[in-house]
Specification:
Elements: E1 6-7, E2 11-14, E3 17-18, E4 23-27, E5 41-46, E6 53-56, E7 59-65, E8 71-72, E9 81-89, E10 98-99, E11 105-110, E12 113-114, E13 119-123, E14 126-128, E15 130-134, E16 145-151, E17 154-155, E18 162-167, E19 172-173, E20 180-187, E21 192-193, E22 199-205, E23 207-208, E24 214-217, E25 221-225, E26 228-234, E27 244-247, E28 254-256, E29 261-266, E30 272-273, E31 279-287, E32 294-295, E33 300-307, H1 322-330
Length: 334
Amino acid sequence: YNVVDYLVTPSAYYGTVAFSGKNIDTDYSDEGTEVFDASKVSVSYTDPVNGGNVDTDAYTLRVVNTATNEVGGVEMLASSGTYTVEAVLDSDALDYAVAGRSDPMTVTVTRGTIQATDVAFAWNDKIVTSVSDQYLPGRDLLDEITVTVRTDNGTVPASDYEVVVTDAKGDQVDEIVEPGTYRVQVVAEGYDIDESDSRLSVTVDKRDIADGVHIRAKNTLNWTENGTPHRALIHTGDVIDATYEWSLDEKTWYDLPADEVTLTYFDEDGDEVDLQNVGKYSVLVEPKGDSAHYTSSKDKYTDVQVTDRRVFADVPSDAFYAQSVYDAVEQGYI
């Protein structure tokens, strides 16, 4: 290895201004912005032996990203960030007579200013300042929200910013599904952006089962009689532990978790009973107080029927294949 004779602190100038007193703010959205120009750098040092001033081209420019501590050359200044730039003497080229580096200058690179009016959130093809809707199983509201970011220089490419979502606890999440409050935040490194101007509040409310929700029993025997469709649970002689599902359009159905609702059955006389005997029942469906997904603004009732209608002589009515056999009989295949 080589030993350097002397360590010195070279003087570095950007034009006529010493590095220690020079700051450059580069905004690439402004065509007239000042951009770091290496040709304007001049370096000298004091000869440690003779005391004279020595101008030199034997140096490199050392650039450091102050946020990440990444070290590189002036090519780093093409990216957004805050940097220090130092002139480092090339001791090899100077025959190891001297070594050292100058005081730093600061270069800040941005790509524009993002103001409140520059961040647009859209939901269902409408510009919104907040979003609120009821829970729907599997539905991710984040998939329905689009973000557009602009500066005076035009639309900011999506690769230049990140959309960060946090829940009420401040934890970062990847989706907006469960009931709760969320914040959708645009983070654009390298841009001058006000955090409060770039966020969207999103609320997922519990599903109100009394608000346009259809509820029906699952695992029913289904048939049509005189043009009228029927659905009924199969009579077994025991109390039936029925499960239910719900829909907004009676096309797409979602499970109604048994652990989130209380079911109360009433017979045709209005008496509270168990779901057991053949007949028609009215069912009061009440979300439990600790239900994570459901609420009800008023009493919600649905109907259910229990039938002793036989599918086939040797096919138990509550067998998992009973409906298929019944359909085959009805259509004349059996």
